[in-house]
C-alpha cells in the first residue's frame, strides 16, 4: 500500500479533468500525413483516454470537459457514456468553440500530429462550471496539465483542485505539457508548480519537469533527485518521473526511491502510453496495491496500449493486463 | 458570346481567391456523423474546387490562398500542383493558424458538416500578400465571397479586386455566403455590395442575394427582377441567381433575362454543385461560348458533380461534360 | 457657386461623423508635458470641432458619435447641446469603452499629444447604429477619416456614406489620418480610396494623400496634379490639398485649379486649423459662396483658430470671420 | 514588535508592485465632473502612492510597474525619482499601452472617478520582466491586488511573490480590489486566496474580503472572526480588516485580536486613506514598532491624507505624523 490516504464511500473512483476530443488516425500505417487517404475516428484527449482506461479496468470514472454542440461533440459524449464513463460534468458549447481534434499519421515514432485547438471547447471551461459537490463525490481528481494552459480553463482547474483538497479528494497531476497552448515557458512553470504543490501525486516525464523548473533553473542540468527534492513538498507525496524506454523513477515523500523498467513490445504508435499508465496506476492504488506494484501495473498497461493501433480502444481490461504481466514474468 | 470583354494573351485563365482546405468525407453513406467510423481525405474549399474544375476542363487556373505549415497544408499544395493548378499565390503560415477543415456526413440532403475555421489560415491573407502583377497575368479573377468575412482577408480581397480592375482582368464574384464567419448580416450586406459593384459577373443563390440586400431591404419579399435591377450597376454585366432544383435565372446589363433548368440526377451529396457550375461557366465563357450556352455547361457540370461522392475529384473533364449534355439532350 | 448640387429643405445643414471627445490642454504655455501642472478641459475630436465651427457660424450641425457613460461623456454631450449641435445621433456606451481623450502641451509647434484611444467609444459605432433617415435629413454628411480605421466603426462609416448617396446628401471626406489607429498603411489606402470615390469633396494634406496612394504608388514622388487626376473620379467633384504654411491647392472635376494662401498669425498651437477650415468651407458652400470664396473663408477661419488657445471655443462667429477677412484685405 | 521575521541588511525597505499612473484632480472642489473646468496633475496608483508614503517617512522604497513612453509616463518616472523612490524596476512600454489614468472630482464622498485602463501599461508586466535578484534586495514586497486582475501581469505578480518567499522577503498583500479589471468575482476569489496564502500580511476592507471569499461562501453573512480563521493559514501571520469610519480590526496567527479606531478629520476626498495606512504601517513595522502601535501609525497617516486634497503630495512626513498623533492623544 502507498501512504496516500484515499477516501472511501464515494460514488466515483476518479474524475478526470481536461480535454476530451476526437482523434483521426491514419488508416494506412507508415504513410506520411500528406499521402494518407483515409482516417479512422476515435475518442482522444489525455483525460478522456485515462477515464476510458479506468473504466475498462472496472473503476468508476467521470469526466469534466467540454465539447462543441455538433456531430463530433455528440460522438465523444456517446462513446464515453457507452464506455460507462460518467459525463454529467461534460459541457456542450454552442458559442463557436470546437471539439479538440487531432489528425495523425500511424508510425512507431516521429508521428506528425496536426492539432486543431484554436478556440478549443475544453479551454472554455470556467470556474462557474465546476461543481464542488461533484468533485466531493470522487476518491481521486485527475488533472491533465494542459487544462492550465489558458484562461478561463486555467481558473476552472485551479478551483477544482482547491475543491478537491477541501473535500479530501486525492489529487493526481498528469503534467501533459503541450507548448503550443502556453504563452511562455515561464507561465507554464508558474502554474505547474502551483498545481503540483496542491497535488498528492505528480506524474511527468523528464522534459516536462524541465519545463516546470524553468522559473528556478540555476543550471541547465536535469537531475531527478533534485527534482524530487524540489517537488516532494506541500501536498505532494509521490513523484513519478518517466523516461520513455528507460522506464520510470518513483520518489516518495518519506524517502523511498525505486525504478520501474518498461515491458518491451512492438510499438505501433508513440502515444497513449502515458494515459494508459496513469489509468492503470490509479486503478491499482485504489485497489490497495502497494506503490511498486501499482507502478508496474501502469507500466504493463502502457506497453499493451502502444502495441495496439488506437488509444481508447487499446486500453486493456483487467484480465488482459494481468495476463500480460503473468506471461512476461514467466518469460 | 457574352458581352464581357475578356483580355487575351494572359498566362493564366482564372485565378481563384479564397479558402483552400481539407474535406473529410464520411466513408459510409447515409450514416450520422456521430456513427461514422472513417473519413476519406479530399481537397476542398470553394475556390480550390473551382480551380480544380477549371483545370480538369483544360483551363489554366491559379489560386491565392493560405494553408498551415503541416501535413494537411502540404497535402493541399501537392494536390493542387498535381492537378496543374498554379500555386505561386499560395501562402504557408506557421504562426498558429490552421488549414480550413470540413468534416462531413455523406447524405443526399441535410448533411451535417462540422467546420474548423477558428483562426483559419486563409483568413490571415492580408493586402501585403497580394501581388498586383500576378493578378494582371490572368484573364479572370474569381472571388469567393467568404474571403470578405473578416480582416485582414477582407482587405486582401478588396485590394485584389481593385488590382484586377486596373489590369483589365475580369472579376467574377461567387457569393458563397457562410453566416458563421461574419459579425453581422449588415456587415455582409455592405461588403458584398461593394465587391459586387466592382465585379463583372455576380453568381449567388436567392438566399445569398437576400443577405446582400439586408441594408436596403424595405420589404421582406425577395424579387429576382428587383435584385437584378439593383445589382446590374457599377461594373456588373451579368447576374446569375440560382434556385436549387428550380435552376437559375440569368440577367444581363443590356436587358436579357433567361432561365436555365437543372439536369436531374441521383444526388449523392448536397454540395459541390455551385463550384462545379462556376468552373464550367467560366471555362465556357473563356472558350467563346455564348452566355446561354455557358450557363448550360455550368448546370450540366453541377449535375455531374453532385451525382458523385466527392467535390474536387468529381469535377468532370471536358469529354465527360460534353457527353453528359449530349446524352441528356438526346433523351 | 461651386458645381456641387446641394439638396434644399433639410432640417440639418451638416452631420459630422466620427469621434467626439475630451481635450485636456496644458494650462501653462511652452512647458513640456512632463512639467505641466494643470490642464483645462475642452471638447475635442475633429468631427466635434467641425460641428461646433458650423454651429458658431450659424449653420445647423449634428453629430454621429459615441462617448462613454460617465462624467466626461456627459460633458461632451452637454457642451455640444449647449452649442446647439444636434446630438440625437450620439450614443452613450457602458460596456467598457472610454470617451476619446487627448492630453496636450500648449506650444506653437512640435506639441506632444498623448492620446487615450484604446477601446475608444467612438470606434464602437456599428452599422446597426446608423439611422438612414437621420442622414437623409441633412444637406451634407462630413466624414472624419479616422472613423474608417477599425471595425465596426469602419462599416458604420461606409454604410453612412452609402445612405447619404442614396438620399442625395452631399458627402465631404476630411481625411484626418492618424497612423496609430490603422493596421497598416495599405489598409488605410484601400479604405480611404473607397470612401473618396463615394465623396463629393475630399480634403486632406499632402502627407495624407501620400498615404491614400500607398497601394498605387509607382514612384516615391508626390505630385498634386497626379493626385487630382487620380481622385477626381467616381463621385468626386472637388479636391483640396492642404500644404500647411504654403496654403492649399484646389482642383475641380471640370478642370479648375487654383491656390489659396494662408493668413499669417501668431500661432498658439498647431492643431484645430483643419477643422476650422472644414467648418467655414462647408458653411460658405451652403450659403452659396463660390468655391474660391469658400476656400478663402476656410483659410481665414483656420488662421483665427490657431491664433487662439483652444479648438472648439476658438471657432469664430460669422462676424469675427468676416471682420478678420476685411481687416486683412484692407491691409 | 510583531511576530513577523523581517530580513535585515537589505538595500531596500519595500518594493511596491502594481500600477503607477497619473491622477488628474478637479481644481474646483464640490463640482460635478461634467462641470469641472480644469485638473491638477499628480502621480497616483495605489503602489505608487504607498512607495511615496514610505519615502516621505524616510524608508527606502522601490517600485515594479510599467508606464507608456510619453510625457505622462516620463512624468511618473521623474516624480518618483525626485521623491527618492527607486525606479529600476519601472518598465517603459512603446507598443500601444497607456499609463494608467484616473480623472476625478474633488468631493468628500461619492466622488466620480473616470478610469482609463484599457490596455493599461502596468498590466503588460509579465514574468519575464520580474527580476528575482531585485526582489531579494528588499525587506518587504508590497503587492497591490489589482496587479492580479489580468494576464500577463497576474503571472508576473504571482512569480514575484514566489521569488520573495524564496528570498525571505516579507510579503504584504493590499487587496485593492477593482471589479472592472476582473473577468468574474470567482476568478478574483481564486487568485486573491492564492496570493493571500503566500502573504505574511493581508490588508483589506470588509467588502474586499467578501469578494475573496466568493468561492467558499456558504452563507451570505460577512463575519470578521470567520474571515480571520480562514485566512490566518499558509504563510499569513497578520490580517487587517478595515471598516471605514469604524476603524480596523486586526488579527494575528497567534490569536491576538484588537480594534483600532480612526482619527476624525474633515475629509477632502475619499481616497488615499488605504495607501497612506499601508505605507505608515509598513514603515512602523520596519522600525520595530509593535503591531498595535504600527496600526495606529497607519490610521493616523490615513487621517492626514484624506484631510488634504491630493494623494502622493498629501503623504505625511514622520514629523507630521508624530505631531498629529501627539496632538490627538493630548486632546
UniProtKB/TrEMBL annotation, chains A, B, C, D:
**Entry protein name:** 5-dehydro-2-deoxygluconokinase
Q: Has the keyword Disulfide bond been applied to this entry? A: no
UniProt cross-references to CDD domains, sorted A to Z:
KdgK
Q: Which InterPro entries does its entry note?
A: Carboh/pur_kinase_PfkB_CS, Myo_inos_IolC, Myo_inos_IolC-like_sf, PfkB_Carbo_kinase, PfkB_dom, Ribokinase-like
A Pfam family of this chain: PfkB
**SUPFAM superfamilies this protein is in?**
Ribokinase-like
E.C. no:
2.7.1.92
Could you confirm whether the keyword Transmembrane helix appears in this record?
A: no
Which residue numbers delimit the Carbohydrate kinase PfkB domain? 13-317
Named from the GO MF annotations, one term is: 5-dehydro-2-deoxygluconokinase activity
Which keywords does this Swiss-Prot/TrEMBL entry list?
ATP-binding, Kinase, Nucleotide-binding, Transferase
Similarity annotation: Belongs to the carbohydrate kinase PfkB family.
Amino acid at each position: 500500500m502507498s501512504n496516500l490516504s484515499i477516501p472511501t464511500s464515494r460514488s466515483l473512483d476518479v474524475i478526470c479533468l481536461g480535454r476530451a476530443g476526437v482523434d483521426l488516425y491514419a488508416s494506412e500505417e507508415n504513410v506520411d500525413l500528406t499521402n494518407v487517404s483515409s482516417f479512422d475516428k476515435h475518442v482522444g484527449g489525455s483525460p478522456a483516454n485515462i477515464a476510458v482506461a479506468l473504466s475498462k479496468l472496472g473503476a468508476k470514472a467521470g469526466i469534466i470537459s467540454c465539447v462543441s454542440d455538433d456531430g463530433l461533440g455528440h460522438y465523444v459524449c456517446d462513446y464515453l457514456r457507452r464506455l460507462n464513463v460518467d459525463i454529467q460534468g461534460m459541457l456542450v458549447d454552442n458559442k463557436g468553440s470546437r471539439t479538440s481534434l487531432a489528425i495523425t499519421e500511424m508510425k512507431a515514432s516521429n508521428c506528425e500530429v496536426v492539432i486543431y485547438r484554436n478556440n478549443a471547447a475544453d479551454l472554455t471551461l470556467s470556474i462557474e462550471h465546476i461543481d464542488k459537490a461533484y468533485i466531493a463525490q470522487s476518491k481521486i481528481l485527475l488533472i491533465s496539465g494542459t487544462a492550465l494552459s489558458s484562461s478561463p480553463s486555467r481558473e476552472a482547474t485551479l478551483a477544482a483542485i482547491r475543491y478537491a483538497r477541501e473535500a479530501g479528494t486525492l489529487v493526481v497531476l498528469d503534467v501533459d505539457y503541450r507548448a503550443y497552448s502556453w504563452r511562455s515557458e515561464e507561465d507554464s512553470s508558474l502554474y505547474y508548480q502551483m498545481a503540483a504543490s496542491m497535488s498528492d501525486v505528480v506524474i511527468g516525464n523528464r522534459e516536462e519537469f524541465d519545463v516546470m523548473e524553468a522559473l528556478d533553473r540555476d543550471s541547465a542540468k536535469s537531475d531527478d533527485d533534485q527534482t524530487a527534492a524540489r517537488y516532494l513538498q506541500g501536498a505532494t507525496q509521490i513523484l513519478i518521473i518517466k523516461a520513455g524506454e528507460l522506464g520510470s523513477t518513483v520518489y516518495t515523500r518519506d524517502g523511498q526511491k525505486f525504478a520501474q523498467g518498461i515491458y518491451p513490445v512492438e510499438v505501433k504508435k508513440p502515444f497513449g502510453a502515458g494515459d494508459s499508465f496513469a489509468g492503470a496506476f490509479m486503478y491499482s492504488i485504489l485497489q490497495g496495491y502497494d506503490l511498486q506494484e501499482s507502478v508496474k501495473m501502469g507500466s504493463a498497461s502502457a506497453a499493451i496500449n502502444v502495441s495496439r493501433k488506437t488509444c481508447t480502444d487499446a486500453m486493456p481490461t483487467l484480465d488482459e493486463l494481468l495476463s500480460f504481466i503473468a506471461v512476461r514474468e514467466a518469460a
